[in-house]
Amino acid sequence: MPPMHISSDHPLLLRIADDLATHGWSQQSIFLPQALTAELAGECRRRSATGELTPAGIGRGEQQQVQEGIRGDCIDWLEPGQCASGDAYLALMESLRQALNRELFLGLEELESHFALYPPGAYYQRHLDRFRDDDSRTVSAVLYLNEAWQPDEGGELRLYLPDGRVHDVVPQGGCLACFLSADIPHEVLPATRERLSLTGWFRRRAGAPR
Ligand SMILES: O=C(O)CCC(=O)C(=O)O
Ligand SMILES: [Fe+2]
């Protein structure tokens, strides 16, 4: 993977900041170069094949439970230094973090991200990404890793917008969906094929004023 750097004043990142400020969400259909998307998809599949992905839980800490009736995906956290494609993604997200802080004064301090795989038929019921006992998740950013997703394969991310409308994001490879974690309820609809993503949350210090 060639080293990739996007400066924090790249127009794509400024557009995301502007969308978040104006609407609370943003969809960038061509966010990642195809080669990087393919490498990240390969890493997600590799982790699946070696059993590194595990059923995702609901909630935090000791209250965490696996409930397939609420969410049916398997996940594995991405840490720096694990793979070149992951590091390239983290570098991009660092530029996005700097852009959001500079443009929107969000005070985002860190990113947590995991690979996710939804088997066919799996879904994630409507929810908010902010935990009741921890308000540090501020911006959610979901990157899709699915090559040539067809419109009839389902698997949309359905956003419930503040104005009462819904917006469906097709999980097409290279597409990034961002939204304010506390403000936009959303759900993942079931798909007829395996659905891969890399989901990140920019966090502020827990307890910081909104
Ligand atoms: O994969 C998606 O489209 C969204 C996943 C999600 O909502 C979550 O992991 O909290
Ligand atoms: Fe979510």
TrEMBL record:
Signal peptide residues on this chain, from the entry's feature table: none
Gene3D superfamilies cross-referenced by the UniProt entry: q2cbj1_9rhob like domain (2.60.120.620)
Domain Fe2OG dioxygenase: 107-204
Source domain of life: Bacteria
Known cofactor(s): L-ascorbate
Pfam families: 2OG-FeII_Oxy_3 (PF13640)
Keyword terms: Dioxygenase, Iron, Metal-binding, Oxidoreductase, Vitamin C
UniProt-recorded name of the protein: 2OG-Fe(II) oxygenase
Lineage of the species this protein comes from: Bacteria, Pseudomonadati, Pseudomonadota, Gammaproteobacteria, Pseudomonadales
